[in-house]
From TrEMBL:
Occurrences of domain FAD dependent oxidoreductase (ranges): 6-368
Family named by the database record: Belongs to the GcvT family.
Keyword Oxidoreductase appears in the UniProt entry: yes
Keywords tagged on the record: Oxidoreductase
Pfam families, per the entry: DAO, FAO_M, GCV_T, GCV_T_C
Protein name: FAD-dependent oxidoreductase
PROSITE patterns, sorted: PROKAR_LIPOPROTEIN
UniProt KW Ion transport keyword: no
Domain GCVT N-terminal, residue spans: 427-701
PANTHER family given in the database record: AMINOMETHYLTRANSFERASE (PTHR43757), AMINOMETHYLTRANSFERASE, MITOCHONDRIAL (PTHR43757:SF2)
Domain FAD dependent oxidoreductase central: 371-424
InterPro entries listed in its UniProt record: FAD-dep_OxRdtase, FAD/NAD-bd_sf, FAO_M, GcvT/YgfZ/DmdA, GcvT/YgfZ_C, GcvT_C, GCVT_N, TrmE/GcvT-like
Protein origin, superkingdom: Bacteria
Species: Gemmobacter denitrificans
Amino acid sequence: MKTHTRVLVIGGGVVGCSVLYHLTKLGWSDVMLVERSELTSGSTWHAAGGFHTLNGDTNMAALQGYTIRLYKELEAITGMSCGLHHVGGITLADNPARFEQLKAERAKHRYMGLDTEILGPEEIAKFTDGMVNLEGIIGALYDPLDGHLDPSGTTHAYAKAARMGGAEIVLHNRVLETNPRPDGSWEVVTEKGTIIAEHVVNAGGLWAREIGAMAGVYLPLLPMAHQYLVTDDIPEIMDILKSGREFPHVMDPGGESYLRQEGRGLCIGFYEKPCEPWSVDGTPWNFGHELLNEQWDKIEDSVSFAYRRFPVLERTGVKRVIHGPFTFAPDGNPLIGPVPGLRNYWSACAVMAGFSQGGGMGLALAQWMIEGEVERDPRGFDVARFGTWTTPGYTVPKVIENYQMRFNVSYPNEERPAARPFRTTPMYDIFDGMNAVWGQQYGLEVVNYHALPGEPRHEEPTFKRSNAWEATRQEVLAVREGVGINEVQNFGKYLVKGPKARAWLDRIMAGAIPKPGRLSLTPMLAESGKIIGDFTVSCLSETEFQLTASYGAQGWHSRWFDQHLEEGVTIENVSDARSGFQIAGPKARELLSRVTRSDVSEQSFKFMDVKPMTIGMAKCLVQRVSYTADLGYEIFTDHMSVRHLWHTLSAAGADLGLRPFGMRAMMSLRLDKWFGSWGREFSPDYTPCETGLDRFIRWNKEADWIGKAAAMSEKAAGPKRKLVSFVVDASDADVVAWEPIWLDGAVVGFCTSGGFSHWTGKSVAMGFLPADRVQDGLECEIEILGERRPARVHLAPLWDADGARMRG
C-alpha cells in the first residue's frame, strides 16, 4: 500500500468506484481507494439494480442518462459484464395530476435528447402483455433506456477500469482518523497504516456520517430500511422469455412500488408509508453483508395494492425477501462536491439511486476536482445546499418525509411540512398573525402570500393556477397603486472589509465596483465564463462593502469566497444578522420621508444610491433599488431592531395603504420588467452574453477578473442562444420552467421561468431561443402540460419600459 497519493477515496461501493474511475478517465492516475471490507459491502450488494432517467431536475436527469450509457463503455473497456438489461420502463398515471406530471416530464425530454413517449391504456397493455390491471390508469410515460443490471458486476467493472487507469484499491482497511494538515493535505490513518492524501473523498455510504465526523463535519443523511421481494418462477414471464423478449420495468406510483423481471419471475419493491429509519444514531462498523429481518407488517398494505395492480403476483410464491438499508439526504438528492469549511475534502454520498446516478455523480465530482467546476449546474446535488444549519433533528423527519413521498406527485408550488417551522425571523409571529402562507428557502420560513379573510392558510398544490391567485393579485395591485412591504431576510448578505477589499472585488466580480455611496449590479463568473452569482455590490466606504444575492446560495457563495480569499480582505456572512424590509410602489418615497430626518428627495437620494439612515430609533442602511421594478427601497438593520422597524413603518404607512406582500407577488412583479431570477434565468448552466447580464460587465476594467478570457471569447464570437421574453396565450396553467419552445414544427428552446403578470393581465414566460431566430413579435408555441400554446416574443418590458417609475 502506498503512503502518499493525490486522491484517497474512502468507500468501495458503486459511487466510490465510479469516482475513482472518473478521476483516472480525466487524467489523474495517482489515486487510490480504501474499503473497510470487500467492494460492495454496504448498500451496493443488496441493491435491486434498477436504473432510470426520470428525474424532476433536468441536470440530474441528464447525468442519469450519462450513467446508463456509460455501462456499455465500461464493458468494452474491461471485458467484464455489467449484466445489462435495457428492457424499457413504464411509469403509470392513475390520476389526472400524475398524468400532468408525466406530460410535463415528457416535454422536458424533448430538448434533452431523451426519447420518451406518452402511452395510452391500450399501449400499456401491449407493452406489459396484459399483466397490469389497468383499472383507473389514464396513461403512462415510456422510457426505452430504463432497465436493470448486476450491482456487483457493475461495481467491479468500475474498479477494474480504475485499476487499468493506474488507481490502487486496498481492501479490508478501515479508516480510523482523518486529520487536516497545514498545507491543505490530509493525514488518513487506516488499519494498515497512514496515508498522506492531497484530497480526500468521503464515499462512505452507510458510514459517511461517521467518516465525516472524523473531519468535524455533519452530513445530513440517514439510512432507511428498504424492502423488496423476488418471486418464484411465473409462467407468463417464462412465455415472454421464450418469445425472445423481457418484461419491462413498471413504476406504479399510486401503489408506491416498482416492479421488474428477475430471472423467470418478478422483483417488486416498495416505498411504504409506515417506513423505518435505520441506525439513526450511527451505523455500526461491523455491519456489512447482513440483511435486516423481514417485516411484512409495514408493507402489508403495499403488497395488497400490488396484488390488485399486478394480479399475477397473488398467484405466485415469494422466493426471497431483501430488506436492507440505504441512505437518503433530506431532499433525496446526492451530497456531492467540496465540503464548505474544509480544504480539499470532498463528499460523494447519499447517492440513493446508485445505479441510476453513480456514473454521473462520479463524473461531476471528478470534473469539480480536476477542472474546478462541473459542466452542468450542480446546485441540485451540491453538498453546500444545506449549509451549516442542519442537525439530526432536522434530517430525520425530512428523510422520512422524502421516503414516504418518493412516488407522490411533485408539484411546482408544493411546500412539504416536515421539520417546519425551524428557522424563523423576528417577524414570524407578526406575519403569522396576518394569515401568512409560508414557504421555505435554505431552511428559512418566508412568506409566499397572505391568505384573504375566510381563505385557507394553505396553497393547494397544483400544476395550474392555485388558490393563491386572488391574494397574490391584490398584493401586486397594492404595490403598483400604493406601497407594499416585504421582508428582506431572504437575501444572502456579506460584509467585505479591508484595505484590499476593492481590488479583491474587482477580481471576483465581472462588473463595476461602485464608488462610496453607490451600488452596482454585477455577475460573478467561474473560469469557464458561466454565471455563479448575481450580486448587488454596495460601497459603504473605500474599505467596506455589502454584497447581497440569493439567500439559498449562501453555502455555494461562501465556499467560493473562501477559496479565493486574499490577505487584506475579510468576509463576514451577515445573512442572518441583518434583516429588514423593502418598501415599493408610488408612495414608497412618501412613507420613507415620514420615518427619517434624512433627505430622501429624488435629487438627494438617487436611483442606486446607498445611505446610512436612522429610521425611527433604528440604525439602518437604505438602498434605492427594488426587485419589484418599481420605485422602491431596501432597508437593512440588525435583527434586534427589526420589530421596531416594522412598527415604525407600518404605523407611518397606515393611511398610505401599506400592505405586506410575499414571494408569489414578488415573482409576478419582477416579470413585468423581465427581471431574471437566480436559479432560473441565471445559473451555472448559462453565460452573461446568453442571458443579458453582459450589460453589467465592465469589459474594460484593468482587473483580471475571474472568467474574463471565456467571457471575452464568447462576446467576440456571439452567443448561440439568447434569453428572451414571451407573452403566452395560456388557459388555466402558466409556464413554470423547462417547457419546450416550438418553432416551425420543431423544439428549438426551453423556458426558464414564467407565470402570470397580475398588473398587465398577461401570462408571460422567459426562455432561450437560437440567437439567429430572435426578433420582436416572433410567433411560436410553448408546450404547457402537453398542450402547445401560442406565444410571441416580447422584447420590451411590459411595465415602465423607459424606467421612469423605477428611477424617478
